[in-house]
Specification:
Elements lengths: L6 H5 L8 H28 L5 E6 L2 H12 L2 E8 L4 E8 L2 E8 L21 E5 L3 H10 L3 E8 L6 E6 L5 E6 L7
Parallel strand pairs: 1-4, 5-8
Antiparallel strand pairs: 2-3, 3-4, 6-7, 7-8
C-alpha cells in the first residue's frame, strides 16, 4: 500500500475511517523522513560550497575591466558582445574566482540615499578581498591613482586592517589584511 493518498481517495473510504489515523501517521512519518533527508543533503552540500563568481553591472566595460586588472591583478579571460541586446560581458579571473562585468546600454545606476555609502541602498554593497601584504597593495593603488574611499585603517571587527577603493562606477572594493606586528 502506498503511503501517499489524495483527499479524494481518503474520503471515498466511506465508513471505514479506522484507517484514516494510520494514513495520517504514515504521511507525517514520510514527510518527516523527507525533511530529515533534505537537511542532511543540505548540510553535505554546504560543506563543499565555495565562492566562485560575482556579477557587477558597469557603465563602461573597458574602464571597469582595466580597473580590476590594474588594481587587483585580475586577468580578463573571456569577452562577449550581444549587440542585439545592447550588452557586453567580460569575465575576469584571479585564483579561481571570477568577476563577471556586464555593460548594458542605457542601464541606469541605482542611487543610494547617501551617495558616499552604498550600504544605504538594498542590493550589492561591496566586494571584499584579503591580502597578507595590504601595505603594498594600498601603496600600489595610491601610486596608480585609485580613488580611495577609506584610507588604510585598523578594523575593530577583524582585529586587522582594511581600506576601501571605489571602482569606476563608485562600487566599494574593500581589502582586509593582518594587523601590524607592532599593533598586537
Amino acid at each position: 500500500m502506498s503511503a501517499i493518498f489524495s483527499f479524494r481517495q481518503i474520503f471515498r473510504m466511506g465508513d471505514d475511517m479506522k484507517i484514516f489515523p494510520v494514513i495520517i501517521c504514515a504521511l507525517f512519518m514520510q514527510a518527516t523522513a523527507a525533511c530529515a533527508s533534505a537537511a542532511q543533503n543540505d548540510a553535505s552540500v554546504q560543506e563543499d560550497l565555495t565562492p566562485r563568481l560575482i556579477a557587477i553591472s558597469v557603465s563602461d566595460l573597458d574602464d571597469a575591466s582595466a580597473w580590476y586588472v590594474t588594481y587587483f591583478n585580475f586577468e580578463e579571460t573571456k569577452r562577449y558582445a550581444f549587440p542585439e541586446d545592447g550588452m557586453r560581458i567580460a569575465f575576469l579571473e584571479r585564483n579561481g574566482f571570477e568577476l563577471e562585468l556586464i555593460e548594458i546600454a542605457n542601464a541606469a545606476p541605482y542611487a543610494a540615499p547617501d551617495p558616499d555609502n552604498p550600504s544605504t541602498r538594498q542590493g550589492y554593497n561591496k566586494l571584499a578581498f584579503y591580502s597578507e601584504d595590504i601595505d603594498a597593495l594600498y601603496t600600489n593603488a595610491q601610486d596608480r591613482g585609485a580613488q580611495v574611499h577609506s584610507v588604510l585603517s585598523n578594523s575593530n571587527r577583524t582585529g586587522g586592517r582594511f581600506f576601501i577603493l571605489l571602482d569606476p562606477d563608485g562600487n566599494w572594493v574593500q581589502v582586509f589584511g593582518p594587523a601590524l606586528q607592532s599593533d598586537k
